[in-house]
Amino acid sequence: MTTYKDAGVDIEAGDATVDRIKPLVRRTFTPGVLTDIGAFGAFYQPDFSGMDEPVLVSSVDGVGTKLKVAFRAKRYDTVGQDLVNHCVNDIAVCGATPLFFLDYFSTGKLDPGVAEDVVRGFAIACEQNGCALIGGETAEMPDIYTEGEFDLAGTIVGAVDKAQIVDGSTISEGDALIGLPSTGLHTNGYSLARHVLFEHFSVDDRPDALSGRSVGEELLRVHRSYLKVIGDLTEENLVKGLVHVTGGGIPGNAARVIPDGLQAHVDYAAWQRPAIFSLIQELGTIPEDDMRRTFNLGMGLIAVVDPASKSDALNLLSDAGEQPVVIGEVRPVE
Question: ∠ CA(301), CA(257), CA(174), 5° rounding?
Fold first, then answer.
């Protein structure tokens, strides 16, 4: 006799996982959530009473090979936060406020403790962003994943009043680029970073350049959410466009919002890069152009503002506890 468990799928482990994560998920529920965890579909009733023309904004993403660092470090409570915050930023730069998030967790052999840690990360970030974790999928797929490994994906849905959409369409020559610091690599460039760093260090090594932080601690720093500061800027109508600096670096992501015929002219000497980027570049003898196209280099968000609004934007950001830096301007394509 052969059972499903013999084939590699443990239904009891799945049930145990659901029991563990229920209280975590329920903590994120907002008034719009109509169903508990476990239903076939997740119901959400949005309140659009304050909007004239509500528009839904959605995004889907993963964490990439940052997961490989989590596997080495055997730490699983940060990657869920990374995923939620990444997705939140992707819709926030469009002017949207997140409503709800759904996750997909897939693994070869389900470990309820690991799954609980991952979902705890989802829940922490959802609470911090005022976003409900209303559903998800946990898949156990033997022979697809190496033992002890898993993959994550997430979908977020938010809303914005049509008149408040931030799309960069009004950006013009001379507009200022104001950068806000990242918390390290965020969730991009990890294939290159791992290739370089793990040829020289273990995950627990503490290079002098990292000022006491281990390689694993540095690489697992949580991708920060910019939702609140974006809300502050848009509420005061201080931005023409917003750039979430992810894969492709500043040039690749700025091009997504700056109109044709214009480009972001960035002064890369305007800020001091976090030590992790210099360490990667020096150890791997990586060309500067590759660094700029692969990493955020310490700037995770860029606000494009009219020169007349630059001082107001800088003051607002400083008052909010940020460390804004004018990193360039919009110029015609060379």
Answer: 85
Cα 235 from Cα 263, distance rounded (Å): 26
145-161 average pLDDT score? 96
Give the CATH fold of the 176-332 domain.
Phosphoribosyl-aminoimidazole Synthetase; Chain A, domain 2 (3.90.650)
- Fold annotation for 11-164: 60s Ribosomal Protein L30; Chain: A; (3.30.1330)
pTM above 0.90, yes or no: yes
> Cα separation of 300 and 304, whole Å?
13
Paired tokens of 287? 């060309």
User: What are the DSSP E strand ranges found in the chain?
Assistant: 54-62, 97-107, 132-140, 150-161, 176-181, 241-244, 262-266, 299-305, 325-332
CB neighbours of residue 245 within 10 Å: 25
Contact assessment for residue 108 and residue 66, using Cβ atoms and an 8 Å cutoff = no
Q: Where are the domains of the chain?
A: 11-164, 176-332
User: Running DSSP on this structure, what letter comes out for residue 273?
Assistant: P
Closest C-alpha among 127, 120, 157, 165 to residue 21:
120
For residues 230 and 92, the answer to whether their CB atoms sit within 8 Å is yes
pLDDT tens sequence across 43-55 = 999 999 999 999 9
Q: 140 - beta bridge partners?
A: 107
